[in-house]
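Annex B. Sample input.
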Amino acid sequence: MFHVAEDHEEGMTGRISRPPLAPRMHYAFSNAGKMAESPQFEYRPQQQRMAELVGAALDGNHAFVCEAATGVGKSLAYLVPAVTFALEQKRKAIICTHTINLQEQLITKDIPIVKQLVGDFHAEILKGRGNYICPTRLKRALNESGDLFSTSEASELKMLLDWVAETEDGTLSDLDFTPSARVWSLVCSEPHACTPRRCPPGSRCWYQDVRRRMEQADVVVLNHTLFFTLLASADETSTEDCNFLFPRDFVILDEAHTIENVAARAFGLHISESNIKFELGRLHNPKSRKGFFQLVGDKDGVREVLQTLESVDTFFRAAEAACKFNAMGREFRVREAGLIEDTLSLPLQRLALRAQKAGDAVDREGTKLELLDLAKRLTAVRVGIKAFLDQENEDHVHWVERTNTDNRIVSFHTAPVDVAPRLRQIFFASHKACIFTSATLGIGDDTELNYFRNRVGAEDARAECIESPFDFKKQMKLYLLKKMPQPSEPGYLDRLEHWITHFIDLSSGRAFILFTSYSQMTSLADNLEAHCERRGWRLLVQGRGMPRHQMLAEFKNDTHSVLCGTDSFWTGVDVPGEALSNVIITRLPFAVPDHPLTASRIEHLEAQGLNPFTEYSVPEAILKLRQGVGRLI
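Annex B, continued. Sample output.
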């Protein structure tokens, strides 16, 4: 077992005196250290160096930014010092990732290895509370199903009841069917109904149970989005004397190249026409004629819902008409306040007051809580609409977006143009132990990672690049086509198809084809499918109805398959072994310059007298290109 040092003394700050971590990590990751006893261990000086640097940052209680290239073994390089530090200092390690794949790797593969080295410790994975079923809410829903649910929805409730008796973790990922959004929304864990008092120990409430285990855990694994959500939520896991989420915690953010965009979404605003209708449908669903107003016998409330639904349609159609969308455009930037007249806030306010009045009048606690919560949600929507139309956040970019197959679902969005000031305050303004790491943070010879550090407010943090132990010249081949037509020229798609089929033949399938244009991908898909069929290979194309995780599973199982994907397949995808032997990148992945958030970032740089092409567009393309190439190694 790796030696966890005994207590020496405890000072006024509560810090326990230990031998420095850095030299202990140097020895642990050496050929003579405990790591070498594992049959899978291969000495890598790069991994050893990273473990030392992480240990030094934790000991010094400061921030550290580390690019650890593919092959370094960064997960163990930060887990071993982090767990050792957490156990010795009686602190809690928060490990944040962007992808589910990495979370599962940490929990099922890496953390068990660390336990063999440092001894047993308590690690938990935390998901957003909306992923957990609440038995208390399920019981109430079943008791009131006649007034709340249609016949098919009531059948789903019974299936959920059977599942609850067998499930081990109570989350959606453990379900073997997909419940309707409306049913799940009324049985999942929510702050107003699923509380420690209402779901005490022994109630088989998985979310409350995992929250109680979190308090005792040494290591907590969660995703970036949930991390930022919990930071902003005072009633979730936050308590007094906490650095981030828990008392005396520290954080390691893996896949940190995604932090800027995740933070922008988390700090922004999202109001969707479909979400508003969904909330109204919980009060009264016009199709099934079910809902909480039926349950409490409020006929006037039913009529008010129907009137508000009409107001929602009128309001969002007016917003759509006010936006000058391009023919294929999905986003329209709103540069000035007062896009349209606010005809929706008053109906929402009236309906919120009606729901609150109905909740105050009802005796059944469960129904009361649901109605009062819906009143709060409708009020929050009203406040959000006002903030969007008035453009209350001057440092945010505002835009309207169209989604769905016919572009008829309209939503309002805002996001901060520059997240660095907010992230600087959270992570870097005071002495807090936090580690940012990824395989791709640097551009060109930017060994100090200045581009990334400036984007996230980490200008004063220590940074280091750790190179890959792989010999890329021997382990991969790079082909660059020099005589391709421009994408706008005739014959481009024909030549692209020719070379794609040429290269997938060389690798007998086993290829990712990464596109920057969804329309180009779909244009080529039919011809590529015929080519693959002639060779007995399966072609998987994003957007044909198969979820991303299922596409990856199918690709891994069929060792000669070919996968065509756009944005989400450039990053966070791991296909070990020979199933992926060829990555074809059809075009340099420059961000779409007319997306409102990208455009506003470009303008922000121009206002500072900087060249946005060299200071933003090129670096972002390089990072994404490195991510795409990284799928192969």
